[in-house]
Design goal:
Layout (H helix, E strand, L loop, with lengths): L7 E5 L2 E6 L2 E9 L2 H10 L4 E6 H6 L6 H9 L3 E5 L5 H9 L4 E2 L8
Parallel strand pairs: 1-4, 4-5, 5-6
Antiparallel strand pairs: 1-2, 2-3
Length: 110
């Protein structure tokens, strides 16, 4: 059996974070340079990267999408991204900046 490990980055305010049980008040920053982390994952052999834009997911809009777009522009590997994707324009801007896959949540199909 073969499998592929896909590293994930949760992006909030341009930083790589982990939320404790989804609580934005309990947020641990583990990397300030998301593009640098993506490059390191690629150097370790990761062909894909999964990125969630937590700010867009939390706020329901893409007001601060810059850090995500910067990461998409810089990532050397294929990227699938989600978080805050609610319409075709949200999908389009991610694809325009190099996303290979866009994950659409259930809110988008209601």
């Amino acid at each position: 059996m073969t499998f592929e490990i896909i590293p994930a980055i949760d992006l909030l305010d341009g930083q790589c974070v982990r939320l404790l049980q989804g609580d934005f008040r309990q947020c641990k920053v583990y990397e300030q340079d998301a593009a640098g982390l993506a490059t390191r994952y690629s150097a370790e052999g990761a062909r894909w990267l999964h990125v969630v834009d937590l700010a867009a997911s939390r706020d329901g809009e893409n007001a601060d999408i810059g850090p995500l777009l910067d990461l998409l522009d810089a990532a050397p590997q294929s990227v699938q991204t989600g978080g805050g994707v609610r319409n075709a324009a949200d999908i389009g801007v991610r694809l325009d900046h190099g996303a290979d896959r866009v994950v659409v949540g259930s809110v988008s199909i209601n």
